[in-house]
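User: I'm writing a tutorial on reading structure tokens. Could you give me a worked example: one chain, its sequence, then its tokens, then a sentence or two explaining what the tokens reveal?
Assistant: Sure. Here is the example chain.
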Amino acid sequence: MPTDPIESTHTPSTLDETPYVELSRREWAALAENTDIDLDQATLDRLRGLGDPTSRLDVTEVYVPLTQLLHLYIQHTGNLYQDTHAFLELDVERTPFVIAIAGSVAVGKSTTARLLQELLRRSPGHPRVDLVTTDGFLYPNAELERRGLLERKGFPESYDRRALINFVSQVKSGLPEVQAPVYSHHIYDIVPDRVQVISKPDILIVEGLNVLQPARVHSDGTAGVALSDYLDFSIYVDADERDIQQWFLDRFLQLRATAFRDPDSYFIRMAQLSDEETISMAMKIWAEINGPNLHQNIAPTRERATAILRKGADHGVAEVLIRKV
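And here are its predicted structure tokens:
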């Protein structure tokens, strides 16, 4: 944490060249207003991912200000919605506010999503907030194997994009009940005959690797619909690749000592690996799957986000970038 007086991190000329306002953590934390929104330690422990060091100070300095900004967006989007429908003389209910959270494997986007879900639930009006991960829209392993994509799990082509877009479209349209498939990291597959039911939330958070992907361009030059067409706010969790790779390795080692030891785990065969073998396997997965996916598909979508949370080597958010309105 810097100890010098708060000052702009960029010259005006630099700010004019980017669509973002870039703030140090200290500058960002200083923007927060007094609020009763807070998380106790037990709740934070429940929300954090495996090995995630997010602290209550992180919640206060990073995630509470982000919740307050989101509340402003939600409030003003609601006002625009009401005014538009009054102008059109329509009498329909407001549809959910949709937030997307993107970023690499192991960067901490799942913890960010769960934290924001809990904090938004505690914001004024206590809105109903649902969270869906795009893992549920991966093709089942059998289908991935049939398509020759099992080794490309997590790449855009491994998802049923049409089903995902239809799901968010139906939620955004205000349907009373929409179902999403459920994915299990334990069995490394879609769970048969199990669904997550979404019933008209005030806010829907969609978390996943590829939620900011642009629309596909067809052979005739026309573009399809993208998930981003339905988003009201989007967040990209960013960090240096070397740090993310280390966090992935650390998590892989922890999983080998915990979840992988369950007899029903898809990865049970890895539980008996030595440290050297585990590190070798993790680095192979990064080099062949997670790294290329980050370079080719995930990182290029970063500048499409409304907000970018840039983490340092300690896994804490060091800078916050907010797109200029």
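What the tokens reveal: Strands lie at 20-24, 97-103, 129-133, 178-184, 189-198, 203-207, 233-238, 307-311, 317-323. The chain has one domain: 18-323.
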